[in-house]
Design goal:
This protein folds into three domains: about 270 residues, Glycoside hydrolase, family 65, N-terminal domain (Beta-galactosidase, Chain A, domain 5, Distorted Sandwich); about 350 residues, Glycosyltransferase (Alpha/alpha barrel), CATH 1.50.10; about 100 residues, Maltose phosphorylase, domain 3 (Sandwich). The protein has 17 helices and 42 strands. The chain has a nine-stranded antiparallel sheet. A hairpin with a 3-residue loop joins β36 and β37. The longest helix is centred in the middle third of the chain and has 21 residues. The N and C termini lie far apart (about 55 Å). About 50% of the residues are buried. This is Alpha-L-rhamnosidase six-hairpin glycosidase domain-containing protein.
Length: about 775
């Protein structure tokens, strides 16, 4: 029986989740911890790639620095002169928290390479399981090669870091190789379970791949290792690093080596616990599987750098740092899967960096793991952040969290309506989510999220008894809602506009857009904009007009529920046609009809949910899920179906929010010890169950379970709360003649809702 066949036996829990591949193994993979990661090729090699740091985005990282370009194993029978390198694997296996490469070799060896990044440690454990499938006992020399590339994350040169040549040495007393950057306190240490017998340190020495950069190679040989016929030996190597000191790197190395088994088991247990949190059972088993893998993805993207903080990164491999815009979407999808503390940590990180960088309420666009801010923030990000803060408060009930950020909320609203709104029409100017060069006018997404910021800002002000501010924000929100629905709605199109601008402003940019469309082969888009250009030239040049560029953000009025029903339904219907929706999801642009993203599709799904169109929402959720496993087994790419970052945080918004917040309808207001259950299942589902949904943190911690069974004559809802003292509000899709029973008695229904004080476990029956 092969090593892999043995591994397939007796799988339970997280061990059941494995996705494998034997073709296109040149695609990338990641194994990730909160303090370290490995990014390489699924064939087991470490190609140079990347555009943020050219050719250096792969390898071994302990952010904010890279440690190694890669690592390789050389195998030689002791009486053989040459030996061979492990090069391209035959199969790649992706498990939720580690991955493996299988090698079936012609010289009667089977080798499995495993890489694993433990929690809370700046390092990686690389294990080789070598099986002798020959006819006799054998003896081998194994050599481990690591190629250093001690260098900082992208944009670090702008804050004073200069990457220099690496140096290296062998420490025979400790049995390790030590590498260091010659100008910075950046260190890497690696070695095995045993002490090496001999070693090489050489800048010009490479293994099976020659990588670019300023690194140096360490080559450690372990001699005369015996493997009996039919048996397997395990070789473990440890790679640790630090951007502060050699002592710190050595401490991490020792922790990895001394606690290898317990580190693996503790992470496995944490992942099993993750599976049990927000544990869904739905008729669509593929979607159920994708939903669970999405939980793992969020953990792959969780990064901690003590000098900056802990938070959810945007996407691997090119955006392995923290973003304001991305997280305002992604965290809404993380709250329902139990990542309540992660959501607070992430927002606190973005908040603190924004205060230090801007200090006026403006929220940054991105901050690297070395603390460098390359973009101080697009207009849309500030109100979107404010909305996200409120969502986190609703789920956690954490008043000190809200109290800490509330002053920034007030400054942010002031910044939007003063500095960014010079004409005082309540439509802030500047770039939005669609960062199109020159399109920094009054945009729909900035306007819609500013409305949301005012709406929730008023609710925050009420909590802090600032009633005058609450009234002011409410009045402004009502006025802005009217502006959006009157001025940015295009009746002839039955759609909201992308932008409000004078013809003169757009004419100054449109030739650039037309040229770019033709360069990208989007002739349809070029023709549409030529028509727009002709129309603009005949209009009064200094009078603002709404303009439709058909970018996906025109869905934001529906996503937030701002659009009235008579506008929302025709707009959603049109967005659902092949003008705006392709094979894999919602186009970024209905003009170009080319690229699709999980976020454009996810926003469409949430928009459908807002108007109780669960069947339509499920269509978009399934479009996202249909891209699962396309290139990286077990994952979903940023760009649909299979390019861009191979795992992206905001995908969670389109997968989780529709299912938990709308299909199951779990909507907590934890500060008040309340939760509303408003289930709206798609017609194709007649039963669904979710267990262990975490709501509230600290003294307000609770968990809710919801089970739904829909029948011909009776619908049955089982709802329970783990802790007492909470109010349960149940809002069901009732028919006019329905009779509703709660536990043993007929329900009292007020305004379409059932209220149970001090709720525990309850059965609701709807008799048709």
């Amino acid at each position: 029986m092969s090593i892999q066949e043995k591994k397939e036996l007796g799988k339970t829990g997280v061990d059941q989740f494995i996705e494998s591949k034997t073709d296109n193994l040149q695609d990338l993979y990641i194994t990730s911890g909160d303090r370290s990661s490995v990014i390489g090729s699924q064939n087991g090699l470490f190609p140079d790639f990347g555009h943020h740091v050219k050719d250096e985005m792969g390898g071994v990282w302990t952010h904010p620095i890279k440690l190694l370009d890669g690592y390789w194993l050389h195998v030689k029978e002791t009486d053989d002169e040459q030996g061979f390198w492990l090069k391209e694997a035959d199969r790649f296996h992706n498990y939720p928290f580690y991955n493996e490469h299988d090698y079936s070799l012609a010289n009667h060896l089977e080798i499995v390479r495993r890489q694993f990044c433990p929690d809370g440690t700046e390092g990686v454990i690389v294990s080789y399981f070598v099986k002798n499938v020959g006819e006799s006992d054998r003896q081998f020399d194994f050599s481990f090669l690591g190629r250093t590339e001690l260098s900082p994350v992208w944009f670090s040169e702008n804050i004073g870091f200069e990457d220099a040549l690496d140096d290296g040495k062998l420490d025979e007393e400790k049995g390790v190789f030590i590498g260091n950057d010659s100008k910075n306190p950046w260190f890497v240490v690696f070695g095995g379970d045993q002490f090496f017998e001999k070693g090489i340190v050489d800048r010009t020495y490479f293994g099976p791949e020659k990588t670019v950069g300023k690194g140096i190679s360490g080559f450690l040989t372990y001699q005369s290792i015996s493997i009996k016929k039919g048996e397997t030996t395990e070789l473990n190597f440890y790679i640790a690093g630090s951007n502060e000191s050699l002592e710190s790197a050595l401490e991490s190395f020792a922790r990895l080596k001394e606690n290898r088994k317990s580190l693996f088991e503790s992470k496995k247990q944490r992942y099993n616990d993750m599976l049990q949190t927000t544990n869904i059972k739905i008729p669509d088993k593929h979607l159920e599987k994708v939903f669970n893998w999405n939980k793992f993805h969020m953990d792959w993207l969780t990064m901690e750098v003590p000098a900056i903080g802990r938070g959810l990164a945007a996407g691997h491999p090119e955006y392995s740092w923290w973003f304001g815009c991305d997280n305002s979407y992604a965290l809404q999808g993380n709250l329902p899967i139990g990542n309540l503390d992660l959501a607070k940590d992430t927002i606190n990180l973005i908040h603190e960096v924004s205060k230090a960088t801007n200090g006026n309420g403006r929220i940054i666009h991105e901050v690297t793991t070395y603390g460098a801010v390359s973009n101080k923030g697009n207009t849309q990000e500030t109100p979107h952040f404010i909305k996200c803060v409120w969502d986190i408060f609703l789920w956690t009930g954490d008043l000190p969290f809200l109290e800490n950020i509330y002053p920034t909320v007030k400054m942010g609203i002031h910044w939007l309506l003063e500095e960014m709104d010079p004409d005082r029409d309540l439509l802030p100017e500047g770039y939005g989510i669609i960062e199109i060069e020159g399109l920094n006018v009054e945009l729909i997404d900035s306007a819609v999220y500013t409305y949301e910021a005012l709406r929730v800002g008023a609710l925050m002000a009420q909590i802090f008894q600032e009633n005058k501010i609450a009234d002011e924000y409410t009045a402004l929100a009502d006025k802005l809602k009217e502006v959006i629905n009157n001025q940015l709605w295009i009746e002839d199109e039955q759609l909201y506009a992308d932008a409000m601008a004078t013809p003169e402003m757009v004419l100054g940019r449109i030739d650039l857009y037309i040229e770019r469309a033709r360069r990208d082969g989007a002739e349809k888009a070029a023709v549409e904009m030529e028509v727009m250009k002709e129309k603009m030239s005949k209009l009064e040049q200094n009078v603002q007009q709404p303009w439709l560029f058909k970018n996906w953000v025109i869905n934001t009025p529906m996503e937030t529920g701002l659009a009235p029903m008579e506008k929302a339904i025709p707009a959603l219907n049109r967005m659902g046609t092949d003008e705006f929706t392709g094979e894999w999801g919602t186009y970024l642009s209905g003009m170009y009809q080319t690229a699709m993203m999980t976020i454009s599709t996810g926003v469409q799904a949430v928009a459908e949910c807002r108007y109780d169109r669960s069947d339509e929402a499920l269509r978009y959720v399934n479009l996202i899920a249909s891209t699962f496993n396309k290139r990286l087994p077990g994952s979903i790419y940023e760009m649909s179906p299979d390019y861009g970052c191979f795992v992206q945080a905001w995908t969670s918004y389109g997968l989780v929010t529709p299912l938990i917040s709308y299909f199951f309808g779990i909507q907590p207001t934890a500060y008040w010890n309340e939760v509303t259950i408003r289930p709206r299942l798609p017609k194709s589902w007649n039963q669904a169950e979710v267990e262990n949904v975490k709501i509230g943190t600290g003294e307000r911690s609770n968990e809710v379970n919801v089970s739904i069974l829909l029948g011909d004559t009776e619908d049955r809802y089982e709802i329970s709360l783990k802790e007492g003292g909470w109010k349960l509000i149940i809002d069901l899709p009732l028919e006019h003649r329905s009779k509703v029973f709660v536990d043993d008695g007929e329900a009292e229904i007020a305004s379409g809702q059932i209220t149970i004080n001090d709720a525990s476990s309850h059965t609701v029956r709807v008799c048709k």
